[in-house]
Amino acid sequence: MLEIKCPYCGKRSQNEFSYGGDANVKRPALGKEVSDKEWDNFVYLRKNPRGNHSELWHHVAGCRKWFKVSRDTLTHEIYNTEKLNEEF
Amino acid sequence: MQKYSIFSLIKNAFSNHENWEVAWKDPKPKKEYDVVIVGGGGHGLATAYYLAKEHKITNVAILEKGWIGGGNVGRNTTILRSNYMWDANGLFYEYGMKLWENLSQELNYNVMYSPRGIINLAHSDAQLNVYSRRGNSMRLNGIDAVMLSRDELKKMIPFADFSSSSRFPIFGGLMQPRGGTARHDAVAWGYARQADSMGVDIIQHCEVTGFDIRDGKIQGVQTSRGNIKTKKIGLCVAGSTSLLAEKLNIKLPIESHVLQACVSEPVKPFLDHVVTFGAGHFYCSQSDKGEMVMGGDLDGYNSYAQRGNLPTLQHVLSEGVAMFPNLSRLKMLRTWGGIMDMSMDGSPIIDKTHIEGVYLNCGWCYGGFKATPVSGWTFAHTIAQDRVHELNSKFRLDRFNTGHLIDEKGVGTKTWIG
Amino acid sequence: MSQKYRLDNVGYIDREKAISFKFNGKKYFGYQGDTLASALLANGIHLVGRSFKYHRPRGFIGAGTEEPNAKVQLYKDAKTEPNALATEIELVEGLVAQSQNCWPSVNFDIGAINNLLNKFFPAGFYYKTFMWPKNFWYKIYEPIIRKAAGLGVAPLKPDPDRYEHKFEHCDILIVGSGPSGLSSALAAAKNGARVILAEDKPRFGGSLLTDEVTIGNKKGKDWADDTISQLKSMPNVIVKRRSQVFGYYDHNMMVMLEKTKDHIDNPNKFIPRQKLWYIRAKEVLISTGSIERPLVFGNNDRPGIMLASAAKEYMKVYGVLIGKKPIIFTNNDSAYDCAIEFKKNGVDPLILDIRKNSDSSSVKEAKNLNINIKFSYGIANTNGYLRVKSATIGKLNGDKSGYENLENIPCDCICVSGNWTPTVHLSSQSGNRLKFDENINAFIPDKSRQNETTIGSASGKFNLKQSLEDGFNKGYEISKKITGNDIKNSPPTSNERTYKDHDKFWCMPLPKNKHYKRFVDFQNDVSVSDIELAVREGFRSIEHVKRYTTLGMATDQGKTSNLNGLQLVSNIENKIVPDVGHTTFRPPYTPITIGSIVGREVGKHYRPTRKSPMHSWHEKNNAVFVDAGLWLRPRYYKQGNENLLEASKREAANVRNNVGICDVTSLGKIDIKGSDSAEFLNRVYTNSWMKLPVGKTRYGVMLREDGIVYDDGTTTRISENHFHMTTTTAQAVNILAHLEYYLQVVWPELDVNVLSTTEQWAGAALAGPNSRDLLSKLFPNTDVSNENIPFMGFKEEDLYGVPARIFRISFSGELAYEINVESGYGIFMWEKIMELGKEINIEPYGTEALSTLRIEMGHVAGSEIDGRTIASDLSLDGMLSKKKDFIGKRSLNRKAFLSTDREKIVGVVPLDRKTMIPEGSHLVKDNNAALPNPKLGHISASCWSVEYNNPFSLAILKEGKKRIGEKLYALSPLKNISIPVEIVSSHYVDPKGERVRS
Q1: Does C251 contact A64 at a Cβ distance shorter than 8 Å?
Q2: Number of domains into which chain A is organized
Q3: For burial by CB atoms within 10 Å, which of B273, B303, C271, C426 has the most?
Q4: What is the pTM of this model?
Q5: Chain A partners of B310 at a C-beta cutoff of 8 Å?
Q6: What's the pLDDT tens digit per position in C506-548?
Q7: In a domain, A65, yes or no
Q8: Cα–Cα distance list, C842 to C565, C614, C833 (Å)
C-alpha cells in the first residue's frame, strides 16, 4: 500500500486518496480556438512513462485537496509531492 | 513435426520420453524478414501463425524481449467469452469463439478449451435490465445468451450467498453457455510450436531498441541481437505499447495499469462455471487443478510493475466472499500482477499507422487473452493485405478523433476506474 | 495413551496435559505443545497423505511452513478447513483431521493406479493428448480430470468465524525470532526504537530451540527465553508469536497474519480466528532463517524420508523419535547434529556422507560417539510402499556418475540434508534483486530497494557468532539512525560446533538401466526426468520449466524444491545457476486465509448501507426497499397483497390525481459559495447561469470533456454568491470530485468553494395537483401562490419552528415542491406532512412510481444518461448554449456526434396497448430477419402509463424523432418475446409542460 504525503495533511496511506492521472494535461482555455487535433490530444492523450510520472492525487478521505505527486511507475517509489501551485 | 496424440504418448513412454523433439527451435536472427512481429506473447505468436497459415507468409520473426508467453498470456485468469453489447466487440469476439472451438485440433496442442459457461450475476432489477440489453444484443448477433432466474442460479451455484444477510442479494444472471476457459500457457506454446513448424523464427531474449524508418517507411529494427531488415512490423506488446510507440513517435490513447489476480490452494472442484459478481468487480472460476482463479479491479494508478498492493486484493476478495461466502475459509496461495494496456474507451486498437509498414495491435485492457486467436487472425490479415478486415474495422485509431468510440462500460477516459 | 516414539525427558511439550485427537477416524493421544505432525509421529505414523498426480503415499518432510506433503482436512461442515498443514496445526482437545486426496483411504488409495501408469503421464502429457474426438475434452476427459483435481474439500457454507484487521506503525519490524532476530531486537529496543518482533511458530527462538549452543553462559534456548522476557517487559516493544509476516508491499507496508484462536481449547466464540496486521515499518529486519534442501535420489519420497533438520526438531522440541533405525544422508555437516541427537537418545544412526571427508567438530563428535559414518556414499533407491523399509546405498565412483557397489540396508527413516537455502522471499518481494552465493549454492539478498536489511542465515550467514553479531550491529545502527539514541551494549559471546563446506553434489545418479523416480517437487510429483523432458522439448527458461512441469507451483510454492530444480536445469543446460535465474517470489509467503484478508467486510457489512433520516418511518409503513448505490430507498409501500406493479400504479396515479410524497434525501447536494460561483456554474453546465436571479432554480446538464452527458440536476441561487446544487444519487460522489478538480486544478483563479451537503439535508418531494393545498397547510404564514412561489422558485420558510427550504421543482411533471430541512428534523418534517396531508389522502410513493412518472414525461435518468449518450441523443439540444463555452463543448463537433443516424430518445407503445415491453429489448424492422439482425435501438425504460392506462417505454432509437409513427418490433430473444410497437414522442404526458407551471 502506497504511503503518500499530502502536502496539506502529511503522510497517509493510499486508501485515503483517489487517483487523477497525468498531471501534465492542460485544458485549453475556455473559448480559445483550438484545432481538432489539439483538442483530441487533450481529451485522449496522456503521458505513460515507465519511470518518473507526474500525476494528480485527490485526498478524498481527508482535506479534499488535489495535489501533484512525482512517482516511479516501475518501482512505485514516490520522489516528491507538491501543492498544485508549487513546482517539483 | 511430431504429431501429438495418445499413440505418440504411449510410443514415447516406451523409450522413456527421450525422443520427443523440441516444441520450437531456438534460431539465431536472420538479416532480413518479410515481417517482424515484436512481442512473443499470445497475440504475437498467433499473428505469426496466421500469417503463415492464412497468408502463406513464413519468412517471419517473432522478437521477444524475455521468454515467450511471459506477458499477459501467462498471467491472466483464462476467461473466454463474447458477451459484448456493441456489435463491433460482439461480432469480433464471436469470431474468436469459433476459432477457440477448433484450436486444440488445429494446433495439435490441447489448449483445454472448456465452454463451461460464464455467468454475470445481477443484484437489482435495474442491473438485470442492463444485462438484458446486452444479452438481447448478443442473441440478435447470433451469440448464445440466456437469462437465469434466482431459483435457477440457486441450483447451479448453491454456495453463492442467497441468504437474507446478503448486502446485495442475487436477482438473476446473464449466462453465455459457450463462454469458459482455456489453459493460458498452452495457447502460447501451441501457437509457437505450429508457427515454428511452418518456418517462423521465434527469437527469445531479443529486445527491440529502435526502428529504422526512412521516407515514412519502415526499413528495419534495431535489437539487442543486431539489426534486422524488414518491410513490415507488427507491434504486439501489450503493457509496453506506449514505450515502443514512443520510439516510433506515435502517441497513443493508452495508459499502463497493473491488474492483480490470485489463486487459492487447490480444492476438490465445486464450481464448474465462470461467475462474475455484479455488485462490484470480481470474477472467479475453478481450474482443472482445483485452484480458485480470481480477479477484479485495477490497482488504480499508472504502473509498469508486475506487482500490486494488498488493499486492492482485500477489496476484490471482499467481493468474492460477498458472492461465495465459503471462499472465506480457503487460503490464498499465489498473487501476481500484469500490465494492462488501458485504452481510453476500453476497446482495442488493431490498425495501420501513418508509417508505412508499421502495424499496431494494442489497447486490450483486461480482455486480451480471450482475443488471442481473433486478434492474431485479424492482425495477420491487416499486415498481409495492408488493410483492416471487416472484423477489426471499428478498432481503428482514428476513432478517438471521429468520436466513433466503443465504450462498453460508459466510464469515459478515466481508465483506472474501468 | 502410550506413544511409542515419544522420548521421556526431551522437548518443550507439557506431558502433564494429554490431549486426544482423531486422525482418519482413529483416536490418538498427544501432549499440549504438540503439533498434529509431532503427535502423529509420536504414535509412529508417517503416512499422512497422497501426492497430487500419482497418489503416492507420503509422509512428513519438514516440521514447519516448508512442508509439502502433510496437508490434511480439519473438522467438518462450515468449520472444515482443507489443506491445513499438519506441521503447523497445534494440537487441541477434540481435533479431527483426515487425509486428503485419497479414496477409500490413505492406506489403500484407488488413485494410486496413476503411479503404476506414471510412465504415460510425464510432464505436460495433457497438452499432447485428449484432443480427439473434438468435443470429448469438455464432455468426457475434463470432467474425469476434474474429479481427480484438488486436494482437500472446500466448505460449502459460510465461514462461522470472524477475522479482524489491525493497523500499526513501528520503527523496526523484525521478522523471525532466531538468534539474529533476537539480538537485533534487543539492540534496537534498548536504543529506544519502537520494535515489533514477529515469530511465525508457537515458540520463540528459531534454531536456538534445536541447536546445542551456548550464548553468554546460557544454553541457547535459555538465552532466547530470557531475551524474550526482557523484550516483553519493555514498553516500546511488541512481541508476537504465531504471526507470519507474509507480504512485503510498497513503501514498507508489511502484512502479518496472527493466528489467535485455533490453538486454544474451547475458545470464547467472540475471539477472532485470525488477525491481519498492516504494519508500516520505517525499517524492516529480515531474520527469516533458512530452510534445508532435500537430496534427490530414487524413490526419495517415501514416508519416513525427512529433512534432517525436521527430524532433529521433532526430537528436540517435541521429544519424538521419527524412527529407530535411521539413516542420515547428507552432503554437509549440519545433518551430523541430527545423528548425534539420535545417538544421545539411544538410537544408532548410519551416516552416509557424499563428501570424501570432513574434519569439522560435528564430524569429530559423531566419530567420538562411535556413529557409523560412510563417506563418499550415496543412496540410489529406497524400498517400502507405505513406509520406507530399506535403502539401496552404494559408494560413489570418482566422478559421481555411478556406484562402485550397491547394497540394501534396512531402515525405518532417512534424514536428508542437501545444505540450506536462505529464506529470501520478503527481501525479494521488496524488490531486492537477489545474488547467487557460490559458497552456499543459493541465492541471498543483494542491494535493498526499500528500507530493508536481511540478517542471519537468511543472508547466508550460517554460523551463530556471525548471526548474533550481525543482528546486534544492524539493530543498533538502524535504531540509532531512527531514534538518534546511542545506547550500545556488546553482542553476546557464543559457542557452537564448527561446520565445513558442503559438497555441491545433491542429485544421485541412477544405477544402470534403472528408471526410478527421483522427486524434486513432492506435492506436485515433479521428478528429475520431468525437468529433463521439459528442457529437451525446448522449455529452457526457468519460467517455462516451472509452468510446463508445475515445479514449485504447489501449496508450498517450492520452498524445498525451487533451488534444486534450478540447479538441475543449470546442470542440464551447462549454465551456472545465476544465468538460469530464478522465478519470482510473490506474496503471500505461505497460503493465507481469504477471510483474514477480507476482515469484517462480510455479509451486510460488505459495503456500508446509507439510510435517510426517514428510514424508520418507511420501515414501519411497509416500504419494500431497493438498493440505489449504497442507499436503501423505498421502492414502493405495500398495501395488502399488492405486487410491485399494482402498488406503483396506485402510487403514481395518486400523484397524477392528488398528491404524493417521496423521500429524495439520497440526491447529491453540493453547497457552492464564492464570488465566482455563477461563472463556475456557467462553465460546468451546458446552459447559461450568469443571469439566474436570487431565489430561482434552474435545470442543468453537465458533460464530460469527451462530450458525453455526465449528469443532470437543478441548482438554486440562494443568494448572490451562494448556490445549492443537486446531482443524481448515483453520481453525487463523482460530481463533487469533478467540481473540485476544475476549481483546484484547471481554474484555481475562481473564487469558489464547494462542499457536499448530501447528508446535511433531508428531502421530501410533494407532487401532484393538490400539493399547493398541502404546502399552504405546512406553511400557514406563507403565500404559496403561483406568483409568490412560481415554477423554479425558491423560498426559505419556517416549518412549524424548523427552518425549511422550499424548491418548486418537479421530476414527476406535476405541480410539485421539494422541501429540505436539516437532517435531524427529517422525520419531523415527514411526519408533519403526513399528518397535515391525511385529510386529503396523501400517499407516500417509492422509486418505482417515481420512475413511472418521469418515464411518462420523457424525463431522462440513469438508464438514458448511461455514459454513452450526448445531449442531442436525449432531446437536450436546447440545453446547449451557443453563446458560451463549457466543459465538453469542443467535443460536440466530432463526426460521429454530428451524424444524422445517431440513436435518439423516443417513446414507444405496444400496438396492442397491453403488453409491457421488457427493458433491454431491442427495436428491429423485421422480427424474423436472419442473424445478425440489425438493431435500430433499445428500450431504456418501461412503465405502465397511469395517464393512458397502457404500457409506455422510452427508447434510444436510430434517427429518433424522424421515426415517430413508424411501426417496429421490440425483440427480447432472452425472453422469447416479439412485440409490435409504434414509435411516439418521448413526451407522452403533458408535452407542453403546463402542469408544472400551474
Answers
A1: no
A2: 1
A3: B303
A4: 0.97
A5: 1
A6: 999 999 999 999 999 999 999 999 999 999 999 999 999 999 9
A7: yes
A8: 78, 17, 9
